[in-house]
Amino acid sequence: MSSEESLVRQAIGGDQLAFTKLYDEHFDKIYRYIYFKIRNQAEAEDLTQDVFIKALEAIGSYKWRDVPFASWLFRIAHNKVVDYSRKQARQRNVALNEAIVANVGDPVAMTERKFEIEELAVAMGKLPPAQGEVVSLRFIAGLPIAEVARVLGKREGTVKALQYNAVVSMRKILFER
C-alpha cells in the first residue's frame, strides 16, 4: 500500500491529520492550476479552498482505484473553474489588473516575469480548450501524462497529441509575430 493510499484511507476514516497532509501535498499544484485558468489571485485562493472543502465533505465516498488522489482533486478543481467561468460570464464583470506586491526581489525581474506570464496566458487563451487544459495540467500543475489522461478522461496518446499540438501552436503564437 502506497503512503498516499494509506493517507487517503486514514482521511476517509476521519483522521484530520491525514487529510491535512494530503492538503499540504496538493495545495500548491491545485492553486497554480486554478490561478492560471482564472488569473485572479483572490478568486484562485477562494476556489482552491472550495476544492479542499468539497474534497473533505466527499472524502467518505472516495474509492481508491490505484489512481493518484490528485486526479480526483483536479477533477473537482476543473469543475470549480468551469462553474466560476460560467458565473463570471453571466455577471460580465470587468477584471481589474492585479498588482503583485513583494517586499523583496528585483523590481525589474519581477516586472519581466509578470510580463512573461501574461504573454503565456494570452497565448494559452488562443489555444483550443482541450489543448489549453492539457497545457495547464501538464506544465502548470506538473502532472504526468498518465494522470492528465485520467483527470480528463482521455487516452494517454490523445493527451500526448494535444500537448504536442499545443506546444507547436504556442511557439507560433509567441515567436512568429
Structure overview:
About 6% of the residues have low confidence. The protein folds into two domains: 98 residues, RNA polymerase sigma factor, region 2, helix turn helix motif (Rna Polymerase Sigma Factor, Chain: A); 78 residues, Arc Repressor Mutant, subunit A (Orthogonal Bundle). The protein contains eight helices and no strands.
Task: Give a short summary of the structure.
The protein has 177 residues and is mostly helical. It is built from eight helices and no strands.
Set down the secondary structure blueprint.
Elements: H1 3-12, H2 16-38, H3 41-58, H4 69-91, H5 107-125, H6 129-140, H7 145-152, H8 156-175
Helix pairs in contact: 1-2, 2-3, 2-4, 3-4, 4-7, 5-8, 6-8, 7-8
Counted up, domains total 2
CATH architecture classification of the largest domain: Orthogonal Bundle
The number of strands is: 0
Please give the CATH class of the largest domain.
Answer: Mainly Alpha
Major sheet details: none
- Alpha carbon gap, first and last residue: 51 Å
So how many helices?
A: 8
Q: Quote the average pLDDT.
A: 84
In CATH, the topology of the largest domain is named Rna Polymerase Sigma Factor, Chain: A
Class of secondary structure makeup: mainly alpha
Instruction: Name the beta content range.
Output: under 5%
Question: What's the name of the CATH homologous superfamily of the largest domain?
Answer: RNA polymerase sigma factor, region 2, helix turn helix motif
Overall shape: globular
Secondary-structure element string: HHHHHHHH
User: What low-confidence regions span 5 or more consecutive residues with pLDDT below 50?
Assistant: 93-103
Rg result: 18 Å
Into which percent range does the helicity of residues fall? Answer: over 70%
